[in-house]
Task: structure prediction
Amino acid sequence: MKKVLSLLSIIVLIALAGCGNPTPQKPGETAQTSAGEKGVKKITIAGNGGVIERTIRDEIAPKFEEETGIKVNYISGLSGEILSKVELQKNAPQIDIAFFVPVDVIRAKEKDLIVPVDESNVPNMKSVDPRFSAMEKAAAPVFGLVIAPGYNTDTFKKKGLKPIESWNDLISPDYEGKTAFSDITNDWGFNTLNGLAISNGGSTDDMEPGLEKAKDLAGYSNTFYKNSTQMMPAIQQGAADVTVMGSYSIGELAVSGVPIKMAVPKEGVPLQAFSAGLVKNTPNSEEALEFMNYLISEKAQALISEKGFYPTVEGMKIAEKYEESIGLKESDKTFKPDFAKFAEIRAEVSDRWAKEVTPELGKKLK
Result:
């Protein structure tokens, strides 16, 4: 009996060994199944939540996986947070592609955290609209936008208010504190300040006129918002009639039924993009580059356009459903901000905003 049991034990052990886990793979290697078939390749992307995350998770990633077999994992976060995470992981990257706002592309490049991309490793870069190519050889521009004023058309019509024609028109007692402006720590807030500077004889090199005008902006506002998750509900619920935000957010509100329209001030609006950076030393660079190339293909840009972003591929247009609310006409003035200068002065200007502008909140409201 003991011999029988011993023989059975040996058979069981052999069977278990045959069904055990495969040898652990090294970073960047392709996993193998017990049958010797190739396992699933994966890449990890970090980028903004909300509409950008939904666009990649629900629209682009499934189609990319179907065509290539490469799975896409998405981690959501703000651009600055993602930059910090990439820097912390620089010796052992866990993120393959990072989406950054332009200022953080500059910072990532300066910190040597991303690999240059151009037509040699991302062939579709040759088709990128030159207006979005400010980040050339640093990152691939994917989600095009402007940061611009938006206003409730119903409220303006009811009160007989004139449409916004200048960045200075954001400052008015007629809005009765029903505004949704971003704090300087958010890209929307920094571009608002830059717009006010340009409209009052200043520039990115001279923010002084903008800071002075921003005090009036604060005076007629109840608060400065931290991010879009606070600002968009304020517009939806009627707590605010005037705002400055990314064009894609204005478009999203408009198609959801909110009576909002983007204004293009005579001084112009900053044209830019959320850009995809290839993280340095990622073991999955080949797969990551393939996805980046896919992102700026006409096929992917058509999907991105349907979510309210301007296509970054030359010759393509935004989806028709957004034309009325955020469509850019040929006569509309756009410009490329000096993102390197933004990065250089941001800390100092943000400190002054906190000390000089924020304390003025609500002081001019009745």
